[in-house]
Specification:
elongated; about 0% strand; mainly alpha
Length: about 120
């Protein structure tokens, strides 16, 4: 990897990591939601600092270039994040449905108690 490209990659990785930490510190996101992005930022930084490691891993896996490895890895990573986010959304929807049903039952009980007092 040319030195200029490596410097750009380091700055981009640092910027991504700093942005992720900033979002957590300003309460725009929670650590438990952003831990995957923090991990990605660290991996990006390591990959930018030591590009030969990525090339070695790519050749070990039978992938011809580091760029192809990055593309495959990032695609798999984004699919994983999409899957886990979908699962979390489904669980949240179930909880909202349950809470709505419980609230309806409680409101009905309160109405019946008020009608019983009259």
């Amino acid at each position: 990897m040319p030195v200029q490209l490596q410097i750009i990659a380091i700055f981009l990785a640092l910027g991504f990591f700093v942005l992720t930490v900033y979002l957590i510190r300003k309460d725009h996101a929670e650590v438990r939601q952003m831990n995957k992005w923090l991990l990605l930022g660290i991996i990006m930084l390591i990959g930018a600092l030591f590009p030969k490691v990525g090339t070695t891993i790519a050749h070990f896996l039978g992938i011809s270039t580091l760029t192809s490895l990055a593309l495959y890895s990032l695609t798999a990573f984004l699919l994983f994040i999409t899957l886990t986010t979908s699962i979390a959304l489904i669980n949240t929807q179930r909880q909202v449905k349950t809470l709505t049903q419980e609230l309806s039952f409680l409101e009905k009980e309160i109405r019946e108690m008020k009608e019983g007092e009259k």
